[in-house]
Amino acid sequence: MKKMFTTLAMLALALVAASQAFALTGEEILKAVDAKLQPGDLEMYRKLINIEPNGNKKEYTYWFLRQDKDKIITLFLAPASDNGRATLRLGENMWLFIPNVGKPIRITSLQSVVGGVFNNADIMRLDYHVEYDVADLAEDEGQHLLTLKAKTGQVAYDKLRMWVEKKNNMPVKVECYSATGILIKTLYFKDVKDMGDGVVGPTVIETDSPLYKGYKSIMVSAKLKKRTFPEEVFTLNYLPRVKELR
Amino acid sequence: MIRLAPLGLVARLAVLLAALGLALAVGLVRPVLAEEIDLNIPEAEKSPLELGGVVEMRYINHILNQDSALYRLRYYNQKPGSYTEEWRPQLELKADYKEGIAQFHLYTHHEYHEFYSDYETVNKVYEGYVSLKPSAGVTIEAGKKAFSWGKGYAFNPAGFVNRPKDPDDPELNLEGYTALGADFIKSLGSQGLQTVAFTPLILPVFNNENTELGQTGDVNYAGKLYMLLYDTDVDFMYMGGPNQPDSYGMDFSRNIWENLEIHGEFAYVKDARKQSVGSSGGVNIEHENQVSYLLGLRYLTERDTTYILEYFHNGAGYGGDQVDGFFAYQEMAWRQWLSTQNAAYMQRADMLTRSYYRSKNFGQDYLYLKISQKEPFDILYFTPYLSFLVNLEDLSFNVAPGLTYSPVTNLEFNLRVIAPIGNMGTEFGEKLDDLRSEIWLRWYF
After folding, report:
1. Which pLDDT score, from 0 to 100, does residue A42 have?
2. Which of residues 286-345 of B touch A (CB under 8 A)?
3. Which of A97, A40, A35, A42 is nearest to A65 (CA)?
């Protein structure tokens, strides 16, 4: 009896040890989430839809290029009033090119080039693990719950709470908080399917905000292609000409 | 220039009201439920030819300052009274066509402009050029192109190849210059010196092209060296030519904090020609080395209020004594006209003061401030703003509250009032208007 108890205890210990050996750390989960959302160098098309409380909506379409961990370009294709606008992000540096103005001007991540709930930080978001450290990993209703803390004061949101599916590391929901602890917005990741080039991820991101009661914004991603561009594309001088690449 | 009969007031207001009605009608479209949202992205399909444009209808109401120097200069023999209107419908068209490494770009401007008894139509090619891109780092361009050098918002002293901005409308499209140019870009990494780019330009004067830059046959040269250095944009510029002074410039822009950007420009123009007029009408022409500079910031608060603040020292501007003499001469010409009714006095004054009035702001030191609030009271796509332009020498100023509202896709509604304030003998106190109210609609297609 004693021998059987010892064997069972050792087996239980071995199972615990094995599960811990296979359990992902918070950082690994975060990197896995990033890989689901923006896997490597790529181009894709996005539609951003702002919906007002009365149901009126406004749509924007842009071409999205991402390279390395910190280079992003967006080129607005629609509506006509925004056609030709382009943004460039190199790390914490962001610029906006408006054809009328004729030159790129520096902008900040908290601004929004399109109005509505999504701001520049959402539209030109870097990988989460580039901007955030994992402060805590917990479990909530069968999902991972990551608490993320911004690495620097330059990041748009000081703290994030991120819910992640355990089975596939797919993000479900992210709450974004200011440094003073105010909930700025919540992102909901939906409609997981092939975005293009065999990459499976959430093709729809919805957001709402207590700061914009009744308003909602939706970001749709499609036609993803893994593509690497010459480094010169991600420069200020190239930005006015980026549409020639499409 | 083609002269057309002016539209009647009723017709103008009817067109404007129709446009407003259209805006409201489109704005009251049936609400769209979230479930009806189309998740397809048809714009992802590429087309080698892209066409587009914008229609603008602008109505301006002028309450005139009948005692101002400019009013007397323009209307000494007319009587527009204390009030007049300006009507300015315009159309801008653009086309882009891509074929292999070549890109063709065309941007045209068409305008009917009516102000008191003057009216004209303007048809101009703002841009028309071909661009060849053999690699990502090399571009060669030939044709007419609008350049925008410098980092300033309201002024660009180092923008040697720019058309001068109107500080009341710094974001308006402007006509370009005809040039043969190139752009060489080298990306060097993500630390220290991250990017270097060099943009040489040749700007010849021929036929009716680039006539502002010299005499027919002149060939002007310009160049800009850009660097992204330790997260700071830095440019060095040069321009010169047979009838152009050697001009050297630099600018910079950098985000100090996440929500604070600073920028600056410096320009040194060697041996620049400057004409001034004395109080008795004597003309003085001198050549001088002019130093201009600009320092500015752009600050965004947590409540989405943006502040743009710029100080501008204009080395080509006119100082206190020169401005006093300029206004004193116009006063003298006006009195001579009143006593003799001889138009030659005013015609000469008009000719001699052109060098002042040609530049929108002829003073030496300015402070510009624009405060804009994005989407107050949760009203999406609504931005009210307030801007000030102060002549620091005579302390006269322009104050301009306005708003932009674009609730409907591709339709933009603008309203603005501009009030120049200052004593007689000051820059803004002598402006044509006591008050200028503007309303305009833009429809993009």
Report:
1. 94
2. 298, 300, 302, 304, 306
3. A42
